[in-house]
Design goal:
Helix content is about 0%, strand content about 55%. By secondary structure, the chain is mainly beta.
Length: about 120
């Protein structure tokens, strides 16, 4: 069974940092392109970043320069380091993977940026 389990969310003050983790299982992680996305209240799901099987990375303009995606193939983990957080970064953050015609998403982890 394919599983993605996110963790690391929480409440942080503006300007602070958080590191999100996603534990993957049930598929060949090292050959898969991994994705982080988020959904703010009342808004659609927003793509944030990709890290591909060859470690190339891509970022949405909204997070470029503040967020860093990384992966550890030995541990089947993908991470999202988030710095200089803003109130508008408040959302549920999801880890995703596309396997064939299916896109699998974890349950998400809540990030709240507030003073």
């Amino acid at each position: 069974e394919v599983q993605l389990v996110e963790s690391g969310g929480g409440l942080v003050q503006p300007g602070g940092s958080l590191r999100l983790s996603c534990a993957a299982s049930g598929f060949t992680f090292r050959t898969s392109n991994m994705i982080w996305a988020r959904q703010a209240p009342g808004k659609e799901l927003e793509w944030l970043s990709n890290i591909n099987r060859d470690d190339t990375t891509y970022y949405a303009d909204s997070v470029k320069g503040r967020f860093t995606i990384s992966r550890d193939n030995a541990k089947n983990m993908v991470y999202l380091q988030m710095n200089s957080l803003k109130p508008e970064d408040t959302a549920i953050y999801y880890c995703k993977v596309r396997l064939g015609d299916d896109t699998i998403r974890g349950q998400g982890t809540q990030v709240t940026v507030s003073s």
